[in-house]
Amino acid sequence: MGRLAVILILTSGCGRLGFDGLGAGDPGGNDQVVVPPHSEARVHPAVCATNTLTVNTSDPDIALAGTPTGATVFWVPKAGGDLSGLTLDLGLQQVVAPRPIRNGTFTAVGANYIDDTLIATAVSSSRALVHIVPQDLASFNEIANVDGSFASEAALIHVAGARLTPTACSGGLNINPYTGWTSDGTVTTVATSQTTGLDSTPFGNEALSMWSTADGCHLERHTTKSTGVATHRPNETCDAPRLASDGTTAIAMYESSGTMISQMPFGADQFDTVVPFASGRSPRMVFDGASYWAGYLDPTGALVVGYFDGAGGFSSITLGDVTPKHDAFELAWIDNKLWDVSMTDTSMTAHQICLTTD
Length: 358
Known about the structure:
Radius of gyration: 19 Å
Distance between the termini: 33 Å
Number of strands: 31
Largest sheet: 6 strands, antiparallel
């Protein structure tokens, strides 16, 4: 069983957000921050709604995008197949039944709702195809077909007013910009060896991308659509990375040989010491406007979900009714609740998770 690592990326001199109870720390960001696996917080997460629906797939990779009216779930079979989806309302009730959106041999998917538009990226071989999808899922409009064996969970992000789709492949990270809603055909590459995973998140007016290779973990701070600052932690891989940000701070969680937390001053552009978090795999990260939430599969395969509370702890619950595979669940903050969607070959279970007081 692997372990999970977390990197806390902070602007210099700022607090710890959910880690404030651990002390102000070194303004240079060089002190260790240790997060206990659980806390005794009076406010704790609990399932406040759930619904299970029938689907038909095989070992899926899924994506979850919150919309003003609920959520859209996309999935593809990891062995290759069609891009499919369904939609839920804010009460977890099905609105659009499972349906194919685009035929193909897609093996991975990412999605988000941005600029009042639903976006889905589907990966086929070494190409990442980016689509605008209407909320009825009845059609699609391909807006980019770019080099990429991996795509960010967020299909499209903003950097300094520009729209970008980060992808990763055998040659490193590719930054693919748009003119309006059309790929402009240019690409900026951060050259590394073969990538094994990628995620990106907005970071104020900039953005962050993290990807892993056989020789270490890489971070790019995107400052414009074609410029950025790259750093590399050698001999420390960051498989299956996930990022979340409040605009001025960010946390990265990933699979590693150890479970760790690190912090990095924004202006320093470098990783700091990494310290343990929890045994597990398949991490997820979400920011809810006030706190960071995380999810992962524990050594038994159970799904653990929780938030980093103001006391410096991680308050969590185990969702005992689901045991999704590595890529078959996602978290999102929708309508002031944390949503989990977990999928098997034959069913999809959605949870809404609320905070309750003892």
